[in-house]
Amino acid sequence: MAQHDYVIDNASGAAVRADINSVLQAVLTNNSGTAPSTTAPYMLWADSGSSPNLLKIRDSADGAWIKLCEIVSGGIGTINNGQFFIGDGTVSKPGLAFKDDINLGLRRISADKLSIVTGGADRVTVDANGNVGIGVTSPSAELHVENSSNATIQITGGTSGTATIRFGDTDDTNIGKIKYDNNDDSFAFDTNNGTRLTIDSSGNLTVFGGNITNGSPAIGVSGFDLQNDNVHKLARNTADGNNVLRVLGGSGEAVVKGNGDLKNTNNSYGALSDSKLKENIVDANSQWDDIKDVRVRNYNFKSSTGYGTHTQIGVIAQELEVVSPGLVKESNDEDADGNSLGTTTKTVSYSVLYMKAVKALQEAMDRIETLETKVAALEAGN
Q1: CA-CA distance, 82 to 79, in Å (whole number)?
Q2: 94 cis-preceded (ω within 30 degrees of 0)
Q3: pLDDT averaged per 10 residues in sequence order, the chain, 382 residues
């Protein structure tokens, strides 16, 4: 420890030299010891009487000592157990900044709220609850990103790797993930260690389980509902002549209209008919009586069905069932979600009815040809 009054007394020879050396020793040791009796503005003092020892500086008015930092074995700290104190600062001059970039650094916004400042603006804020705000100084969630125009979070992986966001408990092995794969440019949602939804590089959507829907489509209500276990529904609330669904091929299309009409470009509706698929092939029995007994009727749907109420021509399932029961089938009635209502509705296989009519027409043609032969013979005899 060394202190001095910084005055060289009048003396000679060795005494002056000793006095000068004492002054230099005081400077060298920052006046270590108790408070110096002689002070001056900006004078340093190593206060070895405090615990821990403190390095202090005299203020500009030489009126008081200002604590600079602790002198500890691990290095220089501040006045409070090794901490380093700085002022709060502002966005233009943060408390901890850089000499050549004074609007870049750290600042204290308020109690327990820290901000990273760049370009003279708060960019990242951490509040007392540990919430992190990017672009917002009052974050309302663990991570809160806000931008006055477009907010963007970018997570990138290696060119042959993945970029992943994970969700779950700290000890959860069945963790949820949102993953982008740079190998095939696919985007996937994984849950319970399995991929549930994938969007590939072409925008194709694959879903394992559940359904894809935008509401509850019905007659008069537009929407779609693609379900894994129930009925797939596609609806457009549009006029009778407008398209609800278009299926396009290389040279034609098939269309479902607003009134349920099915149309296509070549009027062809096919069924599997190759001989390699069939056996027990024989001529059909006579359809003369069946077709003769079919009652062709005019009718319209009840308005309560929601279907068009224009006049149509066709058959009534219960009447046809008496003549050809094989042409009538029953379908279970279901609600909008595909749940059974416990009732049934009869339908008619018109395509089979048409083939029965073709057979009956062939029989009629044979009879006509026979009659024509007989008439020709009678006329020749006269």
Answers
A1: 7
A2: no
A3: 85 90 90 92 92 88 88 57 75 93 96 97 97 96 92 86 84 80 88 80 73 81 83 89 90 89 86 92 94 96 88 95 94 80 92 95 96 93 79
Report d(CA 38, CA 80) in Å as an integer.
Answer: 27
- Non-local (6+) Cβ contacts of 96 within 8 A are 86, 89, 105, 106, 107
For residue 59, how far is the Cα from the chain centroid? Answer: 60
Centroid of chain to Cα 227? 20
C-alpha span between 358 and 9 (Å, rounded) = 140
Which residues lie closer than 8 Å to 239 by C-beta, 6 or more apart? 258
CA–CA distance, 163 with 180 (Å, rounded to integer): 5
Q: Are strands 132-134 and 143-145 parallel, antiparallel or unpaired?
A: parallel
Angle at 176 between CA 172 and CA 182, to 5 degrees: 130
Please give the span between the terminal C-alpha atoms of the chain, in angstroms, as a whole number: 160
CA distance 241 to 219: 15
361 neighbors 287 (Cβ within 8 angstroms): no
Of 145, 144, 147, nearest in space to 129 by CA: 144
**Cα-based angle 301, 306, 309 (whole degrees, multiple of 5):** 35
What pLDDT score does 267 carry? 82
pLDDT at residue 109 in the model: 96
What single letter denotes the amino acid at residue 313?
A: I
Domain annotation for the chain: domains and CATH numbers = 1-85 (no CATH), 88-148 (no CATH), 281-359 (1.10.10.10)
**What is the signed CA dihedral for 19, 22, 26, 31, rounded to 10 degrees?**
-90
Is pTM beyond 0.85 here? no
Which residue matches tokens 């006269």?
A: 382
